[in-house]
């Protein structure tokens, strides 16, 4: 059966590229993906495949029923874009100013659509049910996974598989990991309220910028001096704003940052430790503060038995020449929520461009993928789904 599936996927690869490039030219931001959702729904409707729209927002769920009884397997692809200006010089460059697919979600969607088409054509010989989850808003917490789960996208599902096209790794490589593979991704915001004044009279002020600068430095000691070195953790300040004239000491400074962890206890500890440091620093400087910590996605934790099952399948795929264990990634993914409800695994599919002026990381204005990676991903997801029955 896999031979037939792979043959169909190979034949439909040009269509996969066409879909991906169309989506790349017409990106939509998280929670705003109305046209993209309509495009996906229309694709399934033309194939005569049952599709439910408006699942948890802009999400969609398509179901293909095999002719024989069996288990229910879900496959997931996300389809939102990012607020980044596309700087690539390619025919399929984004046509939407300030918005682009800079993380491969267009490729994820094209992969799943064409895989669904191939599976649908083989359904008379297949067992079980195949659930295609097209998820909106992966890029921006609270994300789309939670609301889709709440509206039943996992009802009756026995297992779930997902992949991320990974531009840092070459075509033909698949990376897996048992247990934690991607980190919990949280954000925090600190506002320091001091007392502004003339730059020439700092003694009459409570300098919020100096306090903020101290916090940027001191917060780095959480990971280096308060966290066990064998526990991965990141505390990063991504924004420091205290806008004012050159000769004015700002009365207010705002710091925004992110925390990445794999351990829930450590996650809570760092949140508490940040506020302890902020409070102490502000007391010393006679300033007040506000502090908000927002938990984002939890860590993506793959199930051991499903990961081992997938590894053996991946080694037999003709387009795969390397299957290796991945390092834990500090990036976040709301695929984590699916794995809290259903057993499954999430893996990386190498998508590093062969040509061009270099490989740009995810979320870069010149990000791109080698589109052949979509064919590899489709084979891997298809094999995992079909062989599960």
Rg calc = 23 Å
User: What is the level-2 CATH architecture name of the largest domain?
Assistant: 3-Layer(aba) Sandwich
Could you describe the largest sheet, including whether it forms a barrel? 8 strands, mixed
Using the coordinates above, name the CATH class of the largest domain. Alpha Beta
**Structural class determined from secondary elements:** alpha/beta
The CATH homologous superfamily of the largest domain is named: Zn peptidases
SS field, number of helical segments: 10
N-to-C SSE string, H for helix and E for strand? HHHEEEHEHEEEEEHEEEHEEHEHEH
Mean pLDDT: 97
Portion of residues in helices? 25-40%
Kindly, what is the distance between the CA atoms of the first and last residues, rounded to a whole number of angstroms?
Answer: 12 Å
Fold-level CATH name of the largest domain: Aminopeptidase
């Amino acid at each position: 059966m896999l031979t037939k599936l792979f043959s169909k996927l190979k034949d439909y690869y040009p269509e996969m590229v066409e879909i991906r490039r169309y989506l790349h030219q017409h990106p939509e931001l998280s929670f705003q993906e109305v046209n993209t959702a309509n495009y996906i729904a229309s694709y399934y409707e033309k194939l005569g495949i049952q599709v439910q729209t408006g699942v948890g927002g802009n999400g969609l769920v398509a179901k293909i029923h095999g002719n024989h009884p069996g288990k229910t397997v879900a496959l997931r692809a996300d389809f939102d874009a990012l607020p980044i200006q596309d700087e690539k010089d390619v025919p399929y460059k984004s046509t939407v100013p300030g918005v682009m697919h800079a993380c491969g979600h267009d490729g994820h969607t094209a992969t799943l659509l064409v895989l669904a088409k191939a599976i649908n054509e083989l359904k008379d010989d297949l067992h079980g049910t195949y659930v295609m989850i097209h998820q909106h808003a992966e890029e921006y917490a609270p994300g789309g996974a939670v609301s889709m789960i709440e509206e039943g996208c996992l009802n009756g599902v026995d297992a779930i598989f997902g992949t991320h096209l990974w531009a840092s790794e070459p075509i033909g490589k698949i990376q897996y990991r048992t247990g934690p593979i991607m980190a919990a991704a949280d954000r925090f915001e600190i506002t320091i309220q001091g007392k502004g004044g003339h730059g020439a009279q700092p003694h009459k002020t409570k300098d919020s910028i100096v306090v903020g600068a101290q916090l940027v430095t001191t917060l780095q000691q959480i990971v280096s001096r308060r966290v066990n070195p064998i526990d991965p953790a990141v505390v990063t300040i991504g924004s420091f704003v205290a806008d004012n004239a050159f000769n004015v000491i700002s009365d207010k400074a705002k710091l925004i940052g992110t925390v990445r962890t794999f351990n829930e206890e450590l996650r809570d500890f760092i949140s508490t430790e940040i506020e302890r440091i902020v409070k102490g620093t502000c007391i010393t400087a006679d300033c007040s503060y506000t502090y908000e910590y927002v938990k984002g996605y939890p860590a993506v934790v793959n199930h051991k038995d499903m990961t081992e099952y997938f590894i053996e399948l991946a080694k037999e795929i003709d387009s795969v020449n390397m299957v290796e264990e991945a390092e834990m990634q500090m990036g976040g993914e709301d695929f984590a929520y699916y794995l809290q409800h259903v057993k499954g695994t999430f893996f990386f599919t190498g998508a590093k461009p062969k040509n061009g002026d270099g490989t740009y990381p995810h979320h870069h204005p010149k990000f791109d993928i080698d589109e052949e990676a979509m064919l590899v991903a489709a084979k891997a997801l298809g094999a995992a789904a079909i062989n599960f029955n």
